Amino acid sequence: MATASETTLVTTRNESGTKWWTRFLDPSEGTLAALLLLPTALLLTLIIVYPVCRLIWTSFQNLSLTSGLPASFAGLENYSLMLDDPVFWETTWNTVLITLITVPGALLVGLALALMANLPFNVKWPVRLSLLIPWALPLSFAGLIFAWFFHSEYGVVNDVLRRIGFEGVIWFNSANWAFAAICLTIIWKTSSFMALIILAGLQTIPRSLYEAADVDGAGRLRQFFEITLPLLKPAIVVALIFRTITALQTFDIPFTMTRGGPGTSTATLAMYIHQNTVDFLDLGYGSALAVVMFVLSMGVTAVYLRMIRARG
Amino acid sequence: MSSVSFRKLEKSYGSLRIVKGIDLEIADREFVVLVGPSGCGKSTTLRMLAGLESISDGEIRIGERVVNKLPPRERDIAMVFQDYALYPHKTVYENMAFSLKVRGISSAEIKPRIAQAAEMLGITPLLDRKPSQLSGGQRQRVAMGRAIVRRPQVFLFDEPLSNLDAKLRGQVRTEIKRLHQAIGTTIIYVTHDQVEAMTLADRIVILKGGEIEQVGTPDEVYNSPASVFVGGFIGSPAMNFAKGTIRGGQVTFDGGAGIPLHDHSAGKVGGLEGRDVVVGIRPEHFVPAGEGHALSGQVQVVEPLGSDTLIHFALGQSTLTARVAPEMRPSPGEALSIGVDPSRVHLFDAATERAIAR
């Protein structure tokens, strides 16, 4: 309880606290919170909010640097153009297909790799290093390496196929084979990232749970489905969010392996955005395409987050 | 329900021997506690019995079956782990039902079994909760429930109370004893806490450095410790030890004071005139001056406990502790005259530290 002299002191401070600088030196909790958040809020506005708003605004404009005309408001024209653009639909479908194939593919391969890496090896670092290397390689570098692997004459893949009695495949002449080669490369490149996240999840599962399951009579397979998989769900969902968003933005690997060919059969939405903005300098249409990709990514993230919340 | 036997049981990790040839017979329905300090091999022994650790040498039998090579699920045992090892994503009911489902038991049979076990442990209202929604004591009871529904031949407990606070530990200890009385299954229980060992066990196995130091009932290990280690480990506060020499029918302390040998002890140490010994006296075996043989010392510290008083006093080179009546409150520095009953004095060989006589 405050004494009389303390009460007097507080009253005096409140009376003299009307000056702005005393309020700054002794701010209320709300003011202090706002002051502490201000630098972060400013930074986020500068590097995220402003570019996104600018992108959305540009998507409503006619802005082509090759036309020589000043930017003009176009309303929804860029978006209506998109609906009649077969390349937009093809590249969007390719992007969705790459996501639908490579995300589950990388998840399965990553899960298998993580389970292997979690085995009680005496020396762990070579296993961990072999997981890190594909993850650390630049995407375009992986694309170039695998373009050589799938080379019809000199590639290691055709060499192996011929050695085991099959005919070699001219990978990049066929839309389907080229698409398959790209998907395989993306799975190779991204499964190590999945494996690292799942491995971190695996290492949080206490060993005693498996011992209890041993005593309870559960075999290895049952332990995997009854203990490992349910307890890995949070790690898997996080890995899926990251991987799906980056899969929707696929660019480097198909760009370095096929340049979107044959035709536009392996081109992705990100490549089409790049083509419109960088090659054709059509910033209005390119921005509209980018907004569509942004909405797609946000939609997927919202679905995953809802899944996490539903699971409690 | 079944007996358990260890024959020349060994466990080594490379050149490091953890368990060194343990021989032990545990009778059907017996409650045996393996007790000892950290690193004595008690948990390793239990885990070898469970099948969670391989055996380096020797033999383990459950009933008439040698189980050395059998996986845990074929040993018909149930285990309560130190961290309870409850499946965090399953409800209490699902945790308890898991082992039964795995063994192909029908839901119609599982339900009444779980209901009965839950009733016995007072966890019926918790059956729909997840482990994260339970307190430490409730988790402990669920872990026991999961073991009970199995109806195994042997229950194994690996330091099950070490994660509970002191008050709860006392409550759950009583529940475990009540449980053993109700179901009568063989229990092998590992702890480093001598109070748990004394209160729960039919027989206590005291381990030190991977070897059995003594096996006996709580009374036997308390009243007739086989070594200085056992004497010091069992009992709280710990037994007092002082160096002495046997001379002319009495044991003389380094400081000059002596205690006459009890008739029974004198018979045993008759041929040991001049031998160095370690004298062991439990704090609670000091008596008021005038009763028993009197010793004189100097009070160092007094600890009033309410129910009684602990007096730490110097006797020659040694510092001893006496547990006396609560009204006895000498001051530090004061001269102390206190009695000791020669029949409660333990003698250990100074070289081997094994018991000579009491």
TrEMBL record, chain A:
Pfam families, per the entry: BPD_transp_1
Protein's cellular compartments: Cell membrane
Residues passing through the membrane, by range: 32-53, 96-117, 129-150, 170-188, 231-251, 285-305
Domain ABC transmembrane type-1: 92-304
Predominant cellular place of this UniProt entry's protein: membrane
Keywords: Cell membrane, Membrane, Transmembrane, Transmembrane helix, Transport
Keyword Cell cycle part of the UniProt annotation: no
InterPro entries: MetI-like, MetI-like_sf
Keyword flag Membrane: yes
Entry-linked SUPFAM superfamilies: MetI-like
Membrane topology label: Multi-pass membrane protein
UniProt record similarity statement: Belongs to the binding-protein-dependent transport system permease family.
PANTHER family: BLR7065 PROTEIN, INTEGRAL MEMBRANE SUGAR TRANSPORT PROTEIN
Protein name: Sugar ABC transporter permease
Organism the protein comes from: Microvirga splendida
From TrEMBL, chain B:
Name of the protein in its database record: Sn-glycerol-3-phosphate ABC transporter ATP-binding protein UgpC
Lineage: Bacteria, Pseudomonadati, Pseudomonadota, Alphaproteobacteria, Hyphomicrobiales
InterPro entries: AAA+_ATPase (IPR003593), ABC_transporter-like_ATP-bd (IPR003439), ABC_transporter-like_CS (IPR017871), ABC_transpr_MalK-like (IPR015855), ABC_transpr_MalK/UgpC-like (IPR047641), Mo/tungstate-bd_C_term_dom (IPR008995), NA-bd_OB-fold (IPR012340), OB_MalK-like (IPR040582)
NCBIfam families in alphabetical order: PRK11650.1 (NF008653)
Matching SUPFAM superfamilies: MOP-like, P-loop containing nucleoside triphosphate hydrolases
Domain ABC transporter as annotated: residue spans: 4-234
GO MF term list: ATP binding
Family membership: Belongs to the ABC transporter superfamily.
Record keywords, A-Z: ATP-binding, Nucleotide-binding, Transport
